[in-house]
Design goal:
By secondary structure, the protein is mainly alpha-helical. The protein has one domain. It has five helices and two strands. It has a two-stranded antiparallel ribbon with strand order 1-2. A hairpin with a 3-residue loop joins strand 1 and strand 2. It comes from Candidatus Uhrbacteria bacterium RIFCSPHIGHO2_02_FULL_53_13. Keywords: Membrane, Transmembrane, Transmembrane helix. This is DUF1648 domain-containing protein.
C-alpha cells in the first residue's frame, strides 16, 4: 500500500535543479516588482502619463498612467502561480511536466523584466 505523496515531497523540492529554477523565477519576479515600484511612481506623482509601449517604426504608440506598468510583473506572477498550482495538482512525480512548467515561468518572468527595463529606458 503506497501513501499519497504530500506537497513537501513534490518533485520540485526533491531535486536541486528544480529548487534552483524556482529560486531563479522568484528572483526574477522580485526584480520585476522592484523595477516597477522603484522609478515609475515618481512619474505618477508629477501627474504625467508614461509610455507603455515603444515601437521601432512609430516610436511611442501607447501611453497611460504609471500604475498600468504593474500589469507586467502581475502577469508574470500570475503565470508562475498558475504553473505551481498545476504542478501541485496534477503532476506529483512527472519530472518533465514540472521542468516545462518551471522553464515557462522562468522565460515569462525574464521577458517581463526585459520589457520593464525597455519601458524604463523609454521613460528616461
Amino acid at each position: 500500500m503506497s501513501a499519497k505523496p504530500s506537497a513537501s515531497s513534490t518533485i520540485i523540492w526533491r531535486s536541486r535543479g528544480m529548487r534552483a529554477l524556482v529560486a531563479a523565477v522568484g528572483l526574477l519576479l522580485l526584480v520585476g516588482w522592484m523595477i516597477s515600484f522603484w522609478r515609475f511612481p515618481a512619474f505618477g506623482a508629477q501627474g504625467e502619463v508614461v509610455p507603455l509601449h515603444y515601437n521601432i517604426y512609430f516610436g511611442v504608440d501607447s501611453v497611460g498612467p504609471w500604475w498600468r506598468i504593474l500589469m507586467i510583473p502581475g502577469f508574470a506572477t500570475l503565470v508562475f502561480g498558475l504553473n505551481v498550482l498545476i504542478l501541485f495538482g496534477k503532476s506529483q512525480d512527472d519530472r518533465m511536466m514540472a521542468t516545462l512548467l518551471l522553464i515557462t515561468s522562468f522565460l515569462v518572468a525574464l521577458l517581463c523584466d526585459v520589457a520593464l527595463v525597455f519601458i524604463l529606458l523609454a521613460n528616461v
